[in-house]
Amino acid sequence: WVYALLEEGYPSRYVVNKENISQLTVIRIKQCKDKTGPFKNQPKSGHPRLITDHIERNVI
């Protein structure tokens, strides 16, 4: 939605006002999209889970 508006040629100030978000958020979204290409899950930082989804379903 934010990136789509930017791609359609709307200025970032318009996107800020329309979506009620900060200018910094718009800049970060644009930089992230330009850097990584299509939006997809990126590797997360932190310790990996010890319990898998399969085990968690069996416990619950």
Automatic annotation (TrEMBL):
It comes from the Eukaryota. This is 2983_t:CDS:1. It comes from Diversispora eburnea.
